[in-house]
Amino acid sequence: MLKLLGTRLLQMILIMGIISLILFAIFDSEKFKKQIAVNELGGFAVSALSDQDYQVWLEKKGLNVPFYQRYLNWAGGVARGDFGKSFEKNEPVGSLLAARLLHTGLLAFWVFALMIPLSLTFGIIAGMKEGSAQDRLTSFVAVVTTSLPEIATAIILTVVFALGLHWLPPNAAMVNGWEWQALVLPVLTLVLYDFGYVARMTRASMAEVMHSQYIRTAVLKGLPYRRVILRHALRNALIAPFTIIVLQLNWLLSGVVVVEVFFQYAGFGKLLLDAALYGDIYVIQAATLVAVFVAVLSQIISDVGYTFLNPRIRFA
Amino acid sequence: MSEKLPPGFQHPVIQNAFGHLAAGRLDRREFIRIAALLGASAASAYALVGLPAPAYSEGQLPFPPDDPKAKPGGVLKVAMQVQKLEDPATFSWVQMSNQSRHTLEYVAITGPDNITRPMLAESWAASPDLKTWTFSIRKGVMWHTGEELTADHIAWNVMRWADPAVASSNVGLSVVAGLLEDTGKKDDKGKPIMGLSKGAVEVVDKYTLRLNMNRPVLSAPEDLYNYPTAILHPSFKPPLSENMIGTGPFALAEFNVGDKCILKRVTKTKDGKDFKYWGGTVYLDEIAYYNFDGDNQLSAFASGDVHTLYDFTVEQLDLAKSLPGVINASRTAQNICCRMQVDHAPFTDKRVRQAIVMSVDNAKVKNLVYGDDGDVGEDHHVAPVHPDYGPLPPLKRDVEGAKKLLKEAGFENGLQVTIDVGNTDGPWHQTACEAMRDQMKEAGIDLRVNVMPAAKYWEIWDKTPFGCTAWTHRPLGTMVMSLGYRTGVPWNESHYANPAFDKALDAAEATLDVAARKDKLAAAAKILQDDAVMVMPIWRPVYTIVAQNVNGYQGHPTEYHQFNKIWLS
Amino acid sequence: MTALEIGVKPALPLHLRVRQPDCLIALILLTWIPLTFYVMFGFYLSDTVRNFVLLPAIPATVALYIVAVVSWRESPVAVIGATLVFFWIFVAVAAPYLPLIDPNKPIAPFAEVGALKKDHWFLLGADFKGRDMLSRDLWGCQRVLVWGITATLVAYAIGAFFGLIAGYLGGWWDQAISLVCNIILSFPVMVLFILILNYLGPSGFNIVIAVTFASAPAIMRIVRGLTLDTKTRDYIFAAQTRGEHPLRIMIFELLPNARGPIIVDACLRLGYTTVAITTLTFLGLGLQPPDPDWGLMIKESAKVAMVWRFSYMLLVPALSVSSLILGFNLLADGLREMSMRD
Q1: Which of B98, B130, B382, C143 could cross-link B216 (Cys pair, CB 3.0–4.6 Å)?
Q2: Chains with 3 or more CB pairs under 8 A to chain A
């Protein structure tokens, strides 16, 4: 088990190393350096620069160094906890990213805090009696909510609750300091999208367990239905949803981009998009690494957790 | 004529301008502007020509008077891109200067009425040949350190702009360019290195600064309010955001690029004494800029997050009109210039260019996009708001003529061209080009509108054969014509090269007589117009919106924020 | 099913003849090729060709829809899904012949839903430029459908190819392909999209590349699993003993037998791709103006329509894209249900 964990972690570090090298190579191109210049100085100013001025500018930004050298410097810095400095925001990437991750973390916390109980409850109720009215209703709701892309859900919620009813603020830019109300719409958007998927998976898992021999035996033995469900069925039915829920972390990192951009919430996703559009290489690097780290880590947790929970599988 | 003019109006250029005014060749506002530039008091100039002067403070302060109803205190919230503050001399966006404008002040200040008044200077005077400018520095201006502002400090700033190592765009301003001379040295590419000429910046005494230029400059005070000319404390070291010491009423309290920029009132100097602001009463406690990208600013205003914003685009005008607030439209010399590269087929043929230009009705395009706001372009690059604008005979759309020219040029079966559009100021670029497309169709020209992201357009703006470029406001027509259309200059995106035009432009620039200058610039503009280098349909207004509880807000044509006398109710 | 394999075509009644695989493929191509050409290369077509190229696609679409309803009649879910999807495909191919005004023509900015302005009745209102929302919404499905389906197809072609190789050949091939896939799969999808499209620049063709990059590894895994499962079957051994080329075995023996789960997955993936295209266009990394598509309509309106009065500008494209994705998802559900019943 520990050995497996070790190899997986080692693999992750290897993957992160390869990815960051590729990113450096890509963003070293002339085109991206120009992009930074255009964003910083404006298109007019850049085309008025002589080649020499441009070289001076590159030097000032530290962009004239060959990329492998920059990569080594950067990797050395990362080892010391220094992620470089953002071109656009003019501050260390580490603190910038930490602040944004905190915001996204809060968002993610509420998404999971709502989504997990909601989807598990509905999934289990639906899976308990396949084909019943509650099953069909849950499945229908689940299909519809997963079919609404985040952008559509965000629009519908905003139009109804912010523009129409004026209950909630239409954006989460939080100009006047932290507002919990502003977080409601982004959280709901993400919950609605993800709820359906997890609920359906839970339902499938529950349904499978309900068909299994030991549940039938338990029911035939005359044990109270409640007890069969709570004691016997749930334990096994929740293994599959557990792994799926952990993997939702990976999905969430994708999902937050559009939600944060739409609601102008200063989180990780918006930071990544802004950085990509600006060509802000050190921010892109750090953000990508965080994303890959979370994604791979969630895969590891889900694998390990699955093994741990499921008595039938044991790693050699 | 001179006996009619009061003291303060004795400068020969003012007298000459007054002559033109009397003869009806100069507009009254233009006369006031020139008189103020040459050191006359703006208020007396208004009085002299019989225009009602906008309300300004008693005495010498360049701000509106105090409002007896005003309620001090409060935070003014503004939606704008919050950009980095590195070095004011190399600011590349107006937004940056707005963030520092209430901390770092300027030698002069141009008001919403486009008249330039003394700010950190108390007054100025120009020699009759306009080569020597003497600035009296205001006494009792206190830095945030507690020191008093002196002529030495201003001189340090001017010399800094001229330093090639700083690479300030201010060297392009006539007031700085006039101080430079060829050092004889050349850089790697053989371009001469310019340096400050000896004795160009002269500190006469503690409160007097003299600039000795090698050519006449009329616009010196106006140039000294260009956004990268903010006056820094000589202890300055970049980045500015680390230690912003100014003379203004506000100081940076909190700053995060792409997030917010909070300015708070200065009450104590750095050494703990009371700070006294020279400019009289300031009502606000705090100015807070919150980062919203261009397109999101209006929705931030709509949701009540902010009191005002940097600007919004014309597409958002209907949304703005449906919101409670006062919309402010400033006439500017911002435009779109759909220019053709004259060395790129098929635009090498002048007849083709003429056909394209003739087939478009600029007024219709402008009305479609901006309605009654803005000014109709005339296919050259001097705007009616430019002080040196001279009118030309109106343009007329001529579809038949365009068809004939196309036939002569060998395109009797129609011509197909593609225009690159980057929507760098908003989707209205595309709307304008689509309107042009529909009009050109009637002349047998098939215009294809190729829309690309703004960032991509800025990579090709000076390379594409046919492109729609947005030019920002520049105070003088000669300035923008020199920047964009002189043979071989870096921003000559149309590759236009016409010695006759260069000569006409030289002649206009060398003319000091304002009325004659208008005629000469109009002659140069006519050459450019006849050569059919561009379709220039629109001089656009700039829109902002202000919440109803904001009092004393005045929009500025160059989007400079001046919030000293704003108060919230 | 049996009818399909008899191979006595002339003797079959028409409704069965139409359900022959050759016939179906012909119908699909008849719908698909003109539409793709029209959207991707319409620029290069002359006006006369442009005016007629989509005509044959209309009956083909209708025929396909009828076949779909008849074959899937036992699953109402699949029929509802097919109806939604075919509604939009029909709109896409018929858009030039519907009584719609030019979707790019500015008429009356901010005309509200149902307003009659400048002699035009705005059933769904007008956008900030005064363009008819109904016309834009209906025309808009063309770009979404064409780019979405193309991207999914290309991703499938590449993913399935590598999956077959990895699964069938195994060994070193499997190791290498799986490693690359693992690296790509360790990215959150949107991060990968942003990085790729930022590098390549926003356009429809680049979306195809980005979607291929992001989806092919997952497809490869599915196909690899199915291949591993199928390759031990007798008919594969038979083919191997006949000495057939591995490539031939993979494409003609393995792939057709794995089609059931693949079709279900493809339907789901079409939904994801549609979401991706709309989202990327909204973020400014996707399709470019002026032609309408739903993501673009949302992007443009998000700046101007943030009040109740103008919210139709956001709702119309949002609901349209949702209905198409719902169609794909229901179709996938229905097909899965049916395959499980068999």
Answers
A1: B130
A2: B, C
